[in-house]
Amino acid sequence: MSTVTRRTALKLSAAAAFVPALPVVSLADPAPQHALTVFGAPKHGPDFTHFDYVNPDAPKGGSMRMTPSAFGYNQNPTTFDTFNMLI
Question: Which CA distances in Å does 46 have to 34, 41, 49, 53?
């Protein structure tokens, strides 16, 4: 059995006083969007093909050589820094 203390009652009444100030949230399905952004409108439209920093004509294929992962020099094989051995 829990008892309601004066402090709990004051907290609940203060929280209830602010409920009308909360924004109204619609539960209807929003219109579909092609992008999600935090600030302003999206930079790229719904038909963009590549980002500005990507060269779409770059040569494809190739190979990559890496030294085996080691636990020395903070090179734990389970962390992200193992991809760059100079970090």
Answer: 5, 12, 9, 18
Of the candidates 82, 58, 59, the one whose C-alpha atom is nearest the C-alpha of residue 72 is: 82
Q: Which residue has the tokens 């829990």?
A: 2
Are 77 and 69 in contact, with CB atoms under 8 Å apart? yes
Say which residues have a Cβ less than 8 Å from residue 37's Cβ, sequence separation at least 6.
43
pLDDT tens sequence across 14-61: 888 888 887 877 777 777 888 888 888 888 888 988 988 999 999 988
**SS3 (DSSP) at 8:** helix
Nearest alpha-carbon partner for 35 in 20, 25, 48? 48
**Tokens, residue 43:** 């930079």
